[in-house]
Amino acid sequence: MSVYQLGEMVSLVFMAIALGMDAFSVSLGMGMQEIRLKRIAIVGAVIGLFHIMMPFSGILLGQAISTQIGQYATLTGGLLLVGIGAHMVFSAFNHEAKRLVQPVGLGLLFFALSVSLDSFSVGLSLGLSEVKTVFALLLFGGASMLLTWIGMILGRKMHGLLGIYSEILGGSILCGFGLNILFG
Description:
mainly alpha
């Protein structure tokens, strides 16, 4: 293995961790809902899958689509996170309201899409380089899945400590992360 290949692998590992940290941060907030371990496993697997599919799509379309779409993907992801977080905060004050966003079905797909949109932009840039695609995609998916699990389990533990205020804190984390994407 050459020094160049080792450097490329280290770069991909750091990139995978950076992409997975988005999922970790958001999962920390989402995990503060009372979510069962089986659901946490499914959510992590779906987010990992999205972190494979989105950059793969970006790689495939890397040369066909302009770099402008990366800005729109980030904007959409940020808006989705702010919306999900705001709903969590407002539903914490209205105990009779049913939660709109649950990490099941369509809610899970929106959640996974919102945390993996930035990986599409990364895929666009990787499509223009000569990176080991399969290795990069598996690394992205594995890191985001693992970090999602860690975030949701930590969030679940914090829910037990914070009780009724955990949903407000979780929603605030999602809103803050979405605003950071939009304006940071």
